[in-house]
Amino acid sequence: MRSPVKFLRGLPVQQTETIANRTSPLNLSSDDFRAAGHQLVDRIADFFDSLPQRPVTTGESPSAIRQSLDAGRRLPSQGADAAELLNRATSLLFDHSLFNAHPRFWGYVTSSAAPIGVLGELLAAAANPNCGAWLLSPMASEIEAQSIRWIAEMINYPTDCGGLFVSGGNMANIVCFLAARQAKGGSDIRSKGVDGTRLRAYGSKETHTWIQKAADIAGLGTDSVRWIAADHRMRIDLDALRAQIRADLDAGDKPFVVIGNAGTVSTGAMDPLPELAEICREFNLWFHIDGAYGGFAAVCPDAPPEFSGLGAADSVAVDPHKWLYAPIEAGCVLVRDISKLRDAFAYHPAYYHFGVEAINYFDLGPQNSRGFRALKVWLALQQAGRDGYVQMISDDIRLSRAMFDRISWYAELEALTQGLSITTFRYVPRDLMRSGEDVDNYLNDLNRELLTRLQQGGEVYLSNAIVDGKYALRACIVNFRTTLEDVEALLPIVVRIGNEADKSLRPASLS
Question: pTM to 2 decimals?
Answer without folding.
Answer: 0.93
